[in-house]
Amino acid sequence: MLKDIIKAALGESEADLILKNGFVFDVFTGETTRADVAVKDGVICGVGEYSGANEHDVTGKFVLPGFIDAHVHIESSMLTPAEYARAVMPHGVTTVIADPHEIANVCGEKGIDFMKKSAAHTPLGVHFMLPSCVPCAPFEHSGAALSAEDTRRMAPDFLGIAEMMNYPGILACDEETLGKLVPGKPADGHAPLLSGAPLNAYAAAGITTDHECSLPSELREKVSKGMSIMLREGTLSKDIEKLAPAVNKRTARRCMFCTDDRFAGEILREGSIDHCIRRAAECGVDMRDAVIMATLNAAEHYGLRTGAIAPSYSADIVVCDAPVPGKIYEVYKDGILAAKDGEAVFASGGGDGAEEVTNTVHLEPVTAEFFGHAQPDEFTAIELVPRSIITKKARVRRGGAVSKVCVIERHKRTGRRGFAYVTNFGLRSGAIALSIGHDSHNVIVIGADDESMAQAVNALGTRGGIAVCGDGKAEYLPLEIAGLMTRADAETVVSAHDRLMSAARSLGVNKDIDPFLSLAFLPLPVIPEIRVTDGGAFDAEQFEFING
User: Which CATH number fits domain 66-305: 2.60.120.260, 3.40.50.1100, 3.20.20.140, 2.130.10.10?
Assistant: First the structure.
């Protein structure tokens, strides 16, 4: 009750928790002061001098607000929300702004409901945005579709509208696309390299963020249009180093951090938003600005009462060794201990409703003949760019160093399949198949020969997952939930993924290319320059299929 909080703040009654003698970082002034932090009913009631029976000594340690991931697809970790929480909270993450559009593209509202139920079993603050692009483009063949009417009906139960990837629809004033921008709800953006008048139009539609910046000039221009920019450090897309030169005293308050798509392995080995703070500081961002970007900026943008160690703010607290955290000792969510010394202290759970979102790969077994495709004498191929989801167009002659790739519709047994060729992947033998193919998540397979491609696709079965086939052997990680996630814990998933990675490297995959994420993003037709869908090679700049 409010009276209890006020009395605890006055020192007239016991606080539930007092963190004693810590170095408290003030996100409003950028200063650090030695003080006690008092907590009552999940809220910070005071910062100053407090005493009582519930003291916890943090002398010599730093007290920071809980970190916020401003945009994440939990599905990309390959973990359920319940297991994801156990992975990120030891890294100081207490709040995430989650976009469940990966599972929504496979299972629609049932998929979103599963994510909500699973997240509810954890202390992690998961605030869901409503997917705006299911499918992400009108010609895509996903497992489900959410219309403007669906969006308006569902919007009251969500924090806001998730990334609007269909910027061509916005610029063309398409009524269905505009109908998904719900008045009164914040709308996230997705507009790589958009500039000038088109950017003005996009921002004029009320879209206020972007996580697809890759150039300092792009960050500055978008900030000048009133947008907030999320500096992303995912598994494949690592943008902090590129964007750090544009973060200064004037732009920093319009910047946040996000991981977007980050696999469980990187979370366990490197961290999450704590890693973003460290990376930004390494790249020259003032460490105080980096902490504010990881906390207050996102909280204020989304209207959340967290992100600060101050009275009336949620008691989301990180106790660590320095403002740029190297070691995190304790993490509190709403004043309750959630992680200690690198381990979550809450039980896993959150399997409710999983039976509604399993066995989602609907393909008949395929043969080598299925992949027969006449290669022209000269054609446009997809050139992969290391450590980026952006690709380049490359003109290639038959016999060049390319790998065949095929996307197969897996939701409704339409039999649709599209072919393209990829350079810079490096595959010498065998094949790799996934049921992860952003964002429609059709099956995608890349191979050195048609027989191996058929073997890899058939290994996915009805559950889906990742299969690496070569030299008569197969490695397989089942992802039984929508072909995207598994119920297994993070350590189990990472161990299996490591085996798959080793198997992929043995087939000759370029060491500078992530064999799975690079493949998974090839079907995403809203990222420049060139993609492949179940309709074939696609020019993501002209927004049209490529013939030759």
Answer: 3.20.20.140
